[in-house]
Amino acid sequence: MDMKKGILIQETKDGSHTLYNESLDETYHSTHGAVQEANHVFIDNGIKLIDKSDINILEVGFGTGLNAILTNNYAKENSIVINYIGLETIPLGMDLINKLNYLSENKYLSEDEFMNIHKCDWEIPSQINDSFSITKKNIRIQNFQSEHNFDLVYYDAFGPRAQIEMWDRSIFENLFSLINHGGKLVTYCAMGQFKRDLKSVGFVVECVQGPPGKREMTIASKK
Ligand SMILES: C[S@@+](CC[C@H](N)C(=O)[O-])C[C@H]1O[C@@H](n2cnc3c(N)ncnc32)[C@H](O)[C@@H]1O
Predict the structure, then answer these.
(1) For 186-203, what is the mean pLDDT?
(2) Annotation: CATH topology of 33-221
(3) Is the CB of residue 186 less than 8 Å from the CB of residue 154?
(4) pLDDT at res. 6
(5) What is the sign, positive or negative, of the torsion defined by CA atoms of 95, 97, 101, 104?
(6) How many separate helices (H) and strands (E) can be counted in the chain?
(7) Residue 66 Cα, ligand 1 centroid: separation in angstroms?
(8) Measured from the CA of 141, which atom of ligand 1 is nearest?
């Protein structure tokens, strides 16, 4: 990355913040609404579709932790148990995290939990509350292996224009092997080649309505 360029806070149309990566010329979320997009893609079309009370989730691209925070809320509201693993290659500093307005966007999230999700150590599991434990891992998805399988993968990488290597078929072949039967991978992306790659590694692929500003998103299931 060009070190002269940085990561800046930007407000999206629903009032919630996102970050803008100047080197990649890419935002971390939809500019139509960061919280709105995360709720639509990962909560409404992700965790709500998993019919289990004890769910293992892998997130590719932990970033601001927004998806983890919303998932924590969902787990508490619905009395389910989540074991969450978030992969991230560029952990963000607390200077940026402290400026994000996600606390005010999340009425069920206590300040302690928000801070605990962000301040907990990397590489080891941290129990945030009775419903939610998280392990943040500073590793590239391309190098990730796991002894445990997942019920749900949140695939929240930068888009193909900014980071084409994140959309390589080999990644989805590995993820298919790490997902339980009945499990799913969800993402905001609905690119044609990506969907063909998902099918070719064994997923059953469904396109559903995308969040505001995006026609479609993808749900890939391992039957
Ligand atoms: C679209 S942003 C993440 C959005 C994040 N879920 C959020 O809510 O803030 C993509 C993230 O993927 C991370 N990333 C980039 N390359 C990666 C890789 N090879 N493996 C895992 N994460 C990666 C980026 O640093 C960035 O934080």
Answers:
(1) 98
(2) Rossmann fold (3.40.50)
(3) yes
(4) 93
(5) negative
(6) 7, 11
(7) 12
(8) 20
